[in-house]
């Protein structure tokens, strides 16, 4: 081997680490997070709408107050007389002074007038202000007053040391020919005090919203825990269930979707338990019934000698036991299939034709006095092959318990409620009442069957076929009076035969 080959052969094989387990968020936490996010979105929208509404209302109140003061000055100027003396107002300065001195504005308002030094001039020769002191005297601030008076707009907003100021102004012209200068009437409103109430309201709303969000999260956590409790029980039950223990069930409370899930899970466990029980029963039954013929076959084969006659006898016995084993296996498989939902393939069956076909087939089972006692008219929903198999099994059972020439009666009838009954009646030794139910169990043999061939599966197959049709198999008998085996099928379509 070369060095390269040796290196290649001894090179370490890269180890791929297994994928890390996927960590998922618990459903309870996801529900709480989604509820909190939804509440957060709703509360954010409520806060935003409330803020916009309160802010709009505050600005509307400010605009209303400004417009009201402007309107009052318009009415005063239209009269042109001093309210105190009743004398005509001579000039703009007097008009502004007469009106402003009589005003009692709100604490957040400021009213002042400005008089030009000459008509149309911009320099200040005089100003008139309200009596009470405002939050900030805008009329004494030359720059701020100039910006308000020189702008072409009739309203606007300026920033002051006391906060934003919303203002309106109107031009006041002197009387024609008076030669006195004109002026301006200005009304201002400090926005910050008005908005302070809005801010207090919003802080309170935000505090309440935060508390509500926390409470909503806690409530969502608690409610999700209550709702998901059955789901946790389902998960825990699923983790504890094994093939050896399928008896655990979930306690169902309430009538919501989660309770329905728990009920469905319990139903699934019932079906699984039934399926495993059927499987175990099949294995137990097969082992119990096949052990004896297997022992017989093995014993004869081990003791078989070289004599040809002995060999032929052993082959005959072994073949007979193998045939019996095959019949037992077929019967056990049929009983196992009877638990499946597709075991029965129902179709509309006319009882007259079905009864006639059964009567023709059972005559080959033995030399008996076969009698067709009654034939029903009508139809049922059933699997004709399975019903025929059950009736042939009952007829074969009647043949085993009677002698040649004995009477065996078969028939069918319809009940007023629409159900149908088929029967096989024999004149055999009869069955004690305490055995009427037991003989339908697997591998159970009545006292009249002692010493007769059979594995005790025939009547169990009949009952399985009846149960699969949602019907009933029963026997009516007494010792020494024969037996009547009945197969009752539920009501089907009531129609006359075409």
Overall description:
- By secondary structure, this protein is α+β, with helices and mostly antiparallel strands.
- It has three domains: 30-198; 257-337, Helix Hairpins (Orthogonal Bundle); 347-489, Heat Shock Protein 90 (2-Layer Sandwich), CATH 3.30.565.10.
- It has helices at residues 3-10, 27-79, 92-101, 142-150, 191-240, 257-303, 308-337, 351-362, 384-400, 458-468; strands at residues 109-116, 124-129, 155-160, 163-172, 183-190, 347-350, 369-374, 379-382, 407-414, 420-426, 472-477, 483-489.
- The longest helix is centred in the N-terminal third of the chain and has 53 residues, at 27-79.
Characterize the biggest β-sheet: 5 strands, antiparallel
**Helix amount:** 40-55%
Roughly how many Å apart are the termini?
Answer: 91 Å
According to DSSP, the number of beta strands is 12
How are strands sequenced across the largest beta sheet? 2-1-5-4-3
Counting DSSP H or I runs of 4 or more residues, the number of helices is: 10
Radius of gyration: 53 Å
The tally of structural domains comes to: 3
Low-confidence stretches: 1-11, 118-124
What integer is the average pLDDT? Answer: 81
The secondary structure category is alpha+beta
Beta-strand percentage?
15-25%
């Amino acid at each position: 081997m070369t060095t390269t080959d040796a290196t290649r052969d001894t090179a370490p094989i890269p180890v791929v680490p297994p994928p890390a387990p996927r960590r998922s968020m618990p459903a309870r936490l996801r529900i709480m997070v989604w509820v909190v996010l939804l509440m957060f979105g709703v509360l954010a929208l409520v806060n935003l709408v409330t803020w916009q509404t309160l802010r709009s209302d505050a600005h509307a109140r400010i605009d209303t107050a400004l417009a009201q003061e402007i309107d009052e000055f318009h009415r005063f100027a239209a009269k042109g007389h001093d309210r105190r003396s009743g004398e005509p107002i001579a000039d703009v300065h007097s008009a502004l002074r007469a009106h402003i001195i009589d005003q009692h504005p709100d604490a957040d308002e400021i009213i002042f007038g400005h008089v030009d030094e000459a008509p149309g001039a911009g320099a200040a020769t005089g100003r008139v202000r309200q009596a009470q002191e405002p939050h900030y005297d805008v009329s004494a601030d030359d720059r701020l007053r100039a910006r308000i008076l020189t702008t072409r707009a009739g309203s606007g907003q300026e920033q002051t040391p006391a906060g934003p100021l919303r203002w309106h102004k109107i031009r006041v012209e002197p009387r024609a020919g008076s030669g006195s200068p004109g002026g301006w009437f200005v009304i201002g409103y400090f926005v910050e005090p008005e908005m302070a109430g809005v801010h207090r309201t919003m802080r309170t709303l935000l505090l309440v919203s935060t508390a509500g969000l926390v409470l909503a999260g806690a409530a969502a956590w608690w409610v999700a825990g209550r709702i998901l409790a059955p789901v946790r029980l389902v998960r825990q039950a699923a983790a504890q269930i094994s093939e050896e223990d399928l008896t655990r069930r979930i306690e169902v409370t309430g009538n919501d979707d989660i309770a329905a899930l728990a009920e469905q899970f319990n139903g699934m466990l019932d079906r699984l338990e039934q399926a495993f029980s059927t499987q175990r029963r099949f294995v137990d039954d097969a082992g119990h019934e096949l052990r004896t013929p297997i022992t017989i076959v093995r014993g004869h084969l081990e003791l078989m000698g070289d004599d040809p006659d002995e060999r032929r006898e052993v082959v005959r016995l072994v073949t007979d036991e193998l045939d019996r084993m095959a019949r037992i296996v077929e019967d056990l498989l049929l009983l196992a299939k009877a638990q499946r939902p597709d075991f029965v393939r129902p179709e509309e069956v006319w009882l007259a034709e079905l009864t006639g076909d059964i009567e023709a087939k059972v005559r080959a089972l033995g030399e008996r006095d076969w009698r067709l006692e009654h034939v029903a008219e009508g139809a049922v929903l059933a699997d004709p092959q399975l019903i025929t198999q059950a009736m042939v099994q009952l007829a074969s059972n009647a043949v085993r318990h009677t002698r040649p020439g004995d009477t065996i009666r078969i028939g069918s009838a319809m009940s007023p409620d629409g159900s149908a009954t088929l029967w096989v009646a024999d004149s055999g030794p009869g069955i004690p009442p305490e055995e009427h139910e037991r003989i339908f169990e697997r591998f159970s043999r009545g006292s009249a069957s002692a010493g007769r061939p059979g594995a005790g599966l025939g009547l169990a197959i009949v009952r399985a076929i009846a149960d699969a049709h949602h019907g009933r198999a029963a026997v009516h008998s007494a010792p020494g009076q024969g037996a009547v085996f009945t197969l009752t099928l539920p009501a089907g379509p009531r129609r006359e035969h075409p």
